[in-house]
Design goal:
The protein has about 190 residues and is α+β, with helices and mostly antiparallel strands. It has helices at about 30-40, 140-155, 180-185, and strands at about 5-10, 15-20, 25-30, 55-60, 65-70, 75, 85-90, 95-100, 105-110, 125, 175. The radius of gyration is 16 Å and the shape is globular.
Length: about 190
């Protein structure tokens, strides 16, 4: 058995891995922004569940690597101050969300809705924008998990390894920021 979970974009040009030993929390996020991101990339039907949720494995950046296709990794922001949303530009496959800098070591790896290698869903978040009723649950677990993993990464120095930011803390590729019209066009109804 490999030490990593192997993932790839739809066309196969970009591959990334998540360490099997990575500590993390699997959640479903139903926010309008996650839905907008998937819809803008043309992945609204295959990367969102029936209720509009994104499966996200929250972990630390040093647990994620790119054996192939890093040249295709692109960065999108839904607005000037939004999350960094990383994707494979070759075919529009969502990869991950990060904060706008590496100071708090966090990555939310975006998974296909039917992905089952990362354990059970523990958190249902931002459910107000769901397409059907979903009960919010476990948000405190998610926040505590992020803070705990980030603190450990800072203490061990592993936060310095981050495939999305260079040694100076700049993103490895410049972000594209959606215009209001582009964002509105992809917003869920």
């Amino acid at each position: 058995m490999s030490d990593t979970h192997d993932l790839s974009c739809r066309c196969g040009a970009t591959r990334w891995t998540i360490a099997r030993a990575a500590r993390g929390t699997l959640l479903k996020c139903y926010c309008a922004d996650c839905q907008t991101f998937a819809r803008h990339l043309g992945r609204g039907t295959d990367w969102l569940d029936a209720k509009g949720g994104s499966a996200i494995f929250q972990t630390v950046p040093h647990s994620l690597g790119f054996p192939d296709g890093m040249a295709h990794v692109a960065l999108l922001r839904l607005g000037p101050k939004g999350l960094f949303r990383w994707y494979a530009a070759c075919c529009g496959t969502p990869i991950a969300n990060t904060l706008s800098g590496p100071g708090l070591p966090f990555v939310g790896a975006i998974l296909r809705p039917d992905e089952d290698r990362f354990g059970p869903v523990r958190v249902w978040a931002n459910t107000a924008a769901a397409r059907a009723p979903v009960k919010a649950s476990g948000l405190a677990r998610a926040v505590l998990g992020v803070l705990s993993r980030a603190a450990q990464a800072r203490l061990t120095g592993s936060y310095r390894t981050n495939p999305f930011f260079d040694a100076a803390g700049a993103p490895v590729t410049p972000p594209t920021i959606l215009s209001k019209a582009e964002r509105d066009a992809a917003r869920p109804h």
